[in-house]
Specification:
20% strand, Euk-type_GlcNAc_Kinase, Nucleotidyltransferase, domain 5, five-stranded mixed sheet, disordered C terminus, 2 domains, single chain, alpha/beta
Length: 331
């Protein structure tokens, strides 16, 4: 069997699949909807992955009865705990796509996408927020990333909800005045936010927290003090995640990469990245903060190539096959 890697980056909002040979050549790439098992359930997740994997095989010209790859590297949102990783690995192995399978959290793919060796810290802030770290000796540190029950703060959904909360309180007098109020009223095309709340309650309009998250950053860019407090709190959280991970792995004083990714971080210019770089430098002066510039599926494929012992040239060829992310557009 020709050595191939089936790479899966399964996010909350989209799933990307790439089929790559051992030389780093991209044989096929397909995209589909988000399929986090936490959001859609394991059966639906597997249904989406199966469809995309088979589509990639057809695109690469493989016969229907031919194994898709030697190795499947699946890095998935929702694979937050060891039991979840094991359940997903077992389920994917039963699909028969490849001889071996590794399942991990998608933040590990982000880390590999942003580094040459998968060593360092990665913080992702997209629909949710998460952080993983890998030391040179192989030790890892991670957070459960299960939402408020595991102490999380941040993510597009959380921040968008915060924007609505602050604007409602500004209108009814419980909170400080903020430009979020007229911005949200205009966003919904309503006469007041009380009217919007009623419509949301009766499900007459859609609550899209990610759109409100983008709106909050726009208002913050205009200098609104209330919106800026949310941005500052996100900066604090990203620095906390990275610095705690570095401390737990005894890397605070070492030269180390800190990779940032996810639409909330990559789509806001320097609003979060620049202050994160400045504040993290106070804790880890030798850390280099960088924003990932290739899709996380590249990281999943690289982890797969690492597992198969591919030559260094394969990484260069694979990276060259992908256009750099348009960071201004949110990655």
């Amino acid at each position: 069997m020709t050595d191939r890697v089936l790479a899966i980056d399964g996010g909350n909002s989209k799933t990307a699949v790439a089929l790559v040979d051992l030389d780093g050549r991209v044989l096929a790439q397909v995209r589909g909807p988000g399929a986090s098992p936490q959001n859609v359930g394991l059966p639906r997740s597997l249904e989406v992955f199966e469809g995309l994997a088979r589509s990639a095989a057809r695109q690469a010209g493989l016969a229907p009865d031919e194994p898709i790859a030697a190795h499947t590297a699946a890095y998935l949102a929702g694979a937050d705990l060891p039991q979840e990783e094991e359940d997903l690995r077992t389920a994917i192995e039963q699909r028969g796509w490849s001889a071996t399978t590794v399942v991990g959290n998608d933040t590990f793919a982000l880390l590999r996408a942003g580094t040459s060796n998968g060593i360092g810290v990665a913080v992702v802030c997209g629909a949710g927020i998460n952080c993983v770290a890998v030391a040179p000796d192989g030790r890892t540190h991670r957070f459960p990333a299960l939402g408020p029950i595991s102490g999380d703060w941040g993510g597009g959904g959380h921040i968008g909800g915060k924007a609505l909360w602050l604007a409602v309180r500004a209108e009814d007098g419980r909170g400080a005045p903020t430009a979020l109020l007229p911005a949200l009223i205009a966003h919904y095309g309503a006469g007041s936010l009380a009217e919007v709340v009623e419509r949301l309650h009766f499900e007459q309009v859609e609550f899209d927290p990610h759109a409100l998250c983008r709106l909050l950053f726009q208002v913050a860019a205009g200098g609104d003090a209330v919106a800026l407090t949310v941005v500052d709190r996100l900066v604090e959280e990203v620095v906390l995640l990275a610095s705690v991970s570095l401390r737990r792995l005894a890397l605070l004083d070492e030269p180390v990469d800190v990779v940032l990714g996810g639409g909330v971080l990559t789509g806001t210019g320097g609003a979060v990245v620049d202050p994160v770089r400045e504040r993290l430098g106070q804790f880890a002066p030798r850390a280099e903060v960088r924003v990932v510039d290739v899709p996380p599926v590249v990281g999943a494929a690289l982890l797969g190539l690492d597992a198969l012992g591919a030559a260094p040239g394969a990484e260069l060829r694979l990276r060259a096959a992908y256009e750099p992310l348009d960071l201004a557009a949110g990655g």
